[in-house]
Every structure is written in C-alpha cells, then in structure tokens.
Specification:
Layout: H1 9-15, H2 28-38, E1 43-49, H3 55-66, E2 72-76, H4 87-98, H5 103-116, E3 122-126, H6 128-133, H7 136-146, E4 150-153, H8 162-171, E5 174-179, H9 188-194, E6 198-202, H10 218-226, E7 233-236, H11 242-249, E8 254-257, H12 259-266, H13 272-288
Parallel strand pairs: 1-2, 1-8, 2-3, 3-4, 4-5, 5-6, 6-7, 7-8
Helix pairs in contact: 3-5, 3-13, 7-8, 11-13, 12-13
C-alpha cells in the first residue's frame, strides 16, 4: 500500500484556519458516557476508517452511523502499516489511501462532521508515525482545532509517550490507552494513569476482526482495570453482533464495533445509497444491544 502522506506542521496549520475553531470548551467524551449511564446502557463506540472508500462516501458513512445511535465515533486514520488491524480494516485503509486521503484530508473530514454533530465525541485511532512525522505538538494542535476529542495511538506505550502526553495536556486532547489480556498487574497502573479519556480493553490477543465467540474473561478484566481508574472502560476487538454487544454491555462502560460496520462499505462499493442504508440498519441494531435490563 502507498504510505499516508505526512504534511509539515506549516501545512497542517495553513490548511486548517485555527481561527475557525469555535467549538465550545467541553468534555464531550465524559458527557457521552454520562448520558449512557443515565439511560442505563453502555455507550456504543463505532469504528470507521476515514476516507473509505473515498472522501464523500466516507463523510456520508460517518453521518449515517452518527444518526443511528452511536455515542462515540472512533475514526481510523489510514496508514500503510496498520499492525493492529485485521484484513477488513487493512483493506479499508488501503482504499482510503488509494483515494488520496492524507492527514489534512482526515482533519477536513472531522470539520465536516462537526457541522451537523457538534456534541458527539470523535476519537482518532492512529499510529505514532503519522503523529511524529507531522510534529507531535503541531499534529495534536491541528487535531483539536478540527474538532477531535481524543486520540488512541495504537503503537505508543505510555512509557514512551512523554511528548504525546505533554502535547495532549497543552491542547486539551484526551488520551486513550490500551489494556490487553496479557497486560501485567505491574503495568496496569502506568497505563491507567496515562489515560485521560477512557481505557480500551482489547478483549483478545491478535488483530481486529469479527469473531463468532466472545473472548473469555471479559468481566474479570474490566473489574481489574476499574480497580485502578475511575475512567470509563470500553471493550473492543472481535465484537460484531447485537448479542455480543448485549453481553459486554453488562460489564463495560462502552462497546466498540468496527469490522461489522466496515464490511457494510466493502460489500456495497460503488453504491453510496446502499452503503448508507446498510450502515444505518446495522448500527441501529448494534446500538440497541447496549441497553441493560
């Protein structure tokens, strides 16, 4: 795959006029989880790759899921070497890159989404190369100005995230870090201390993708994380059906679904209307599974 083009800090700031950043200061992430709790449900976190399969269709796809019960949008920044992603999301990134998506265009997509959805949190799911190549402070500044609320940098452990944490504090961008089934009790406090938005529990080893069965040990893992943080804990990787969402919603503050939504795009390439209709139906069904009895 072709690599994601890295703009210079000057380009990032000239492309996005920071004077247009008029969004009110708020913690959209905290508000989204608070609303879900008040409604006796888990928050529904939907993943889509920015620019898949092209800018206009991606914008329509994101708007479709945001209108269908999604509480937080996890927006994948397309990258040429997405190590944590399974085939479905790898191909989505490839389609986006081949259609010309760059860091600047991803920020443009966020700005367009903010016009109709000023209150829904948008989280970047990205890799550190894309942040570092643009200058960490410049990238975080531009992301915040575009309307991004937080960033999950998949390949950046908290022990090596000093520059990212400093920039995020300076620009009030929330940080999200991953806990895996293999995370030791010794490392867990370091991870939870670095997170300011929420903690993401990867429910199984390996990469993203749909699975027939839930991973074992999810309730115990969520409880173990919650012993170290008051932040929300979301669970992802391998969840694709409403019944799976319903089970995880009993234990977690949020449930993440990605590949099942990305497949709605892959299976209907060339027909934006069909993509939107399918995404609306699937997202609404999954969101309904977050209710707690």
């Amino acid at each position: 795959m072709a690599g994601c083009i890295a703009e210079s800090p000057a380009t990032l700031h000239s492309t996005f006029d920071l004077r247009l950043s008029t969004f009110p200061p708020m913690d959209r992430i905290a508000q989204a989880f608070a609303r879900a709790r008040a409604q006796h449900r888990a928050a529904f976190v939907a993943y889509l790759c920015a620019g898949d399969p092209d800018f206009d269709t991606s914008l329509a796809a994101c708007r479709a899921v945001l209108a269908s019960g999604v509480d937080l949008l996890e927006l994948g920044v397309p990258f040429s070497d997405p190590l944590a992603d399974g085939l479905t999301n790898q191909l989505a990134a490839q389609r986006a890159l081949e259609a010309g998506m760059t860091s600047a265009r991803v920020f443009e997509l966020v700005r367009a989404l903010r016009v109709g959805h000023p209150d829904t949190p948008i989280i970047f799911y990205t890799y550190y190369n894309l942040v570092f190549a643009n200058g960490v402070d410049a990238y975080v500044h531009a992301a915040k100005a575009a309307g991004v609320d937080g960033m999950l940098t998949l390949d950046l452990p908290p022990e090596e995230a000093g520059d990212m944490l400093a920039a995020s504090r300076a620009h009030d961008l929330k940080t999200v870090f991953i806990v895996a089934p293999t995370t030791s009790d010794r490392r867990l406090p370091k991870i939870t201390a670095a997170a300011t938005g929420f903690v993401y529990y990867v429910s199984r080893e390996g990469v993203t993708g749909m699975r027939d069965e839930l991973a074992v040990g999810i309730p115990e893992a969520v409880a173990r994380i919650k012993a170290h943080t008051a932040l929300p804990v979301v669970v992802g990787f391998g969840l694709s059906r409403r019944d799976q969402v319903s089970q995880v919603a009993r234990w977690a503050d949020g449930v993440v679904v990605g590949s099942a939504l990305v497949n709605c795009i892959k299976e209907n390439l060339g027909d934006t209307g069909r993509i939107v209709a399918r995404l609306c139906a699937v997202a609404a069904d999954l969101a309904a599974g977050t209710a707690r009895g």
